[in-house]
Amino acid sequence: xxxxxxxxxxxxxxxxxxxxxxxxxxxxxxEWLKANEKYTVDIVGYADAATGTPNVNLELSKRRAESxxxxxxxxxxxxxxxxxxxxxxxxxxxxxKVEENRVVICALEF
Length: 110
Fold this sequence. Notes:
By secondary structure, this protein is α+β, with helices and mostly antiparallel strands. Helix content is 34%, strand content 20%. The protein has two helices and four strands, in the order βαβαββ. It has helices at residues 20-35, 54-74; strands at 7-10, 40-45, 82-86, 103-109. It has a four-stranded mixed beta sheet with strand order 1-4-2-3. Helix 2 links the parallel strand 2 (40-45) and strand 3. The longest helix is centred in the middle third of the chain and has 21 residues, at 54-74. It is elongated.
């Protein structure tokens, strides 16, 4: 786990479902967090600007972040160690790569 940037959890168009591959990444992150209790994790949901309306994408990015939060809690991370946010399509973290903006970015904080 990179201590500055833990993980990107990718999603399909219009979905907040976490598939098996992404779930495995979250399980690894959760195990790392449980072993390194001085860290918290910031999770921020995004949606690509190429599909949906701004309002739909804001709600979608919120549902994505909530899915990641719930999965981390299910894997044993205390809720108070998770800071959650969502940006909709107002910010595109991966310029020029539409599909990569269907993401929740998890970053570690000390």
